[in-house]
Design goal:
globular, 18 helices
């Protein structure tokens, strides 16, 4: 049996290393939503068609989601710190290129390369935390912070995007990644330790089937959101993706060094955590997508005010996540996740009754706060549940699965909920605002049902 190659830490500064890893994670999560409020100005400046404009978002999502499993395993095999820093470098360079883009195709190409960098860096972030912070209580605190960055990053992205677009230009939304990335690269090379290496072989059949399978699923969900579930492209892509994923799972049972060790799912808590990391973003995407539309198109808010409208939600989500290190050892994951998912479901159900005349304070702020507190309770413990007992050799793969579930859930959630909203709008009467809000209400109701399903999964957690 091979002996792991031990690599001494480059610096004994775990606090600084954690700050750098968290900065990277926040940067990657911001880029999922930070472009949303800048899209109208990007379209006017670069001459995008309506269909082409959606690929400013989709190009990043597709590549990021499709390559996460491969990125996680590459970190395990070739060094997490090395793959992490390479990913950050690629992401930073692509952000600079995107900000300098003079045409639509240049911006989309930059977004594709951003996705490549994010898929390399993303899985190694959480794996580096577990290898850098070894004391159990400190690790729980670190993983809770990681969860807070991941969850609040979606809302913070809308705030940052609104600020930069309103005060500067849409290009600053891309440029903001450059100083952050340079700081991570400059200090990460000195202060992030390279964990022990575990020599193995790259599972090439697994890498091909996983990448193509997950990529096909993400693309199918994107096409379903754009053209409906009856789209032939969406159907074929989803079918091909499902077949490839099944082939991938079968291969993992027969290969000596699998890309995704199926033993990761043998633990009941970890398996339930993965399921909830899929279902949670599926339901929460409705809050970001439809509430942004409601505030801008119905309430008449500008990009800046819309971004700040999400600040209370981000603040309570982050604050609740900071309580997890004290709450989790005392109560265990089940009561936290169960109560959190019920609060999320209640907030989404509340939003389903929105009407065109409703104001922010009376009808939007309350549900936002419920979902922020609920999200912090429901998802912050999951990083700890999933990663705390993962064997060191599988930490990158475990982190890749975690973030893949999150990406698939977000993408499927958008596709399903956009379809639900469209169907409800076609059957509604009244003014254009009435029709739009009727579609949103139906989407929020379905999202609440998914959040309730997340609650039942949470009940399967062991108490301790």
């Amino acid at each position: 049996m091979s002996t792991p190659t031990l690599v001494r830490p480059v610096a004994a500064r775990p606090g600084l290393a954690l700050a750098l890893v968290l900065t990277c994670q926040l940067m990657l999560m911001l880029d999922v939503t930070v472009m949303n409020v800048a899209l109208p100005r990007i379209r006017a400046d670069l001459g995008f068609t309506p269909a082409g404009l959606s690929w400013v978002m989709n190009a990043y999502t597709l590549v990021f989601g499709g390559l996460l499993l491969l990125g996680g395993r590459l970190g395990d095999l070739f060094g997490r710190r090395r793959v992490f820093l390479i990913g950050v470098a690629v992401f930073t360079a692509a952000s600079l290129a995107g900000g300098l883009a003079d045409s639509a195709w240049q911006l989309i190409a930059a977004r594709i390369v951003q996705g490549l960098g994010a898929a390399a860096a993303g899985p190694s972030t959480i794996a580096l935390i577990t290898s850098t912070i070894t004391e159990p209580r400190a690790r729980v605190r670190a993983l809770s912070l990681f969860s807070a960055m991941s969850s609040s990053g979606f809302a913070v992205g809308l705030i940052v995007g609104g600020l930069l677009t309103e005060w500067l230009s849409w290009r600053s939304v891309m440029f903001i990644n450059v100083p952050l990335g340079l700081v991570v690269l400059l200090f990460g090379a000195r202060h992030i330790a390279e964990p022990a290496r575990h020599p193995s072989r790259l599972d090439l059949p697994g890498a091909v089937t996983a990448t193509l399978g997950v990529g096909a699923l993400v693309y199918g969900f994107i096409r379903a959101a754009e053209a409906g579930w009856g789209s032939a492209t969406a159907v074929w892509s989803l079918s091909a993706g499902a077949v490839l994923v099944v082939v991938f799972v079968v291969l993992q049972t027969r290969i000596t060094h699998p890309m995704l060790p199926l033993r990761l799912f043998a633990d009941r808590n970890r398996a339930a955590g993965y399921v909830n990391f899929f279902l949670g973003p599926l339901s929460m995407m409705s809050a970001f997508f439809f509430l942004t539309q409601f505030l801008q198109e119905i309430a008449g808010y500008g990009a800046l005010v819309t971004g700040f409208a999400f600040l209370p939600m981000a603040a309570v989500l982050f604050g609740t996540s900071r309580l997890i290190p004290a709450l989790l050892p005392r109560f265990g994951p089940k009561p936290l996740a169960a109560s959190g998912t019920l609060m999320m479901a209640a907030g989404l159900w509340w939003l389903s009754s929105l009407s065109p005349g409703d104001g922010y304070l009376a009808a939007v702020l309350g549900p936002m706060l419920l979902m922020g507190i609920g999200g912090g309770l429901a998802f912050s413990p999951l990083n700890v549940v999933i990663m705390a007992t993962v064997p060191p050799a599988d930490a990158g793969a475990a982190g890749g699965v975690l973030q893949t579930m999150q990406q698939l859930g977000s993408t499927l959630g958008l596709a399903v909920l956009v379809t639900v909203a469209g169907s409800a709008s076609r059957g509604a009467g009244g003014s254009a605002e009435d029709v739009l809000v009727a579609g949103m209400g139906a989407a929020f109701m379905v999202a609440a049902a998914v959040a309730l399903l997340t609650f039942f999964v949470a009940l399967t957690f062991r108490r301790r």
